[in-house]
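Memo to structure team: turn this sequence into C-alpha cells by end of day. - J.P.
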Amino acid sequence: MKPLKERKKMIDKANEKISITRQCGLLELNRSTFYYRPNGETELSLELMRLMDEHYLEHPKKGAGQMYQ
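Reply from structure team:
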C-alpha cells in the first residue's frame, strides 16, 4: 500500500466517470482524509505556547503539575 500522501495525489477531481467517493474507496482512503485541510494555530495559541516555553526554560525542574499551579 502506498503512503497516504501519494494516494491523496492520485485522486482526480475532474474525472467524470469515477466519483471521488469511488476513487477513495479504491485507494482505501477515507473521504474525510481526502477533504481535510488543517487549520493553522491562532495567535493566542502561539502566544501561550511561547510563554509556556519561556517559563519552562527559566524553571526546567518544574513538572507539569507545578507549572499548572
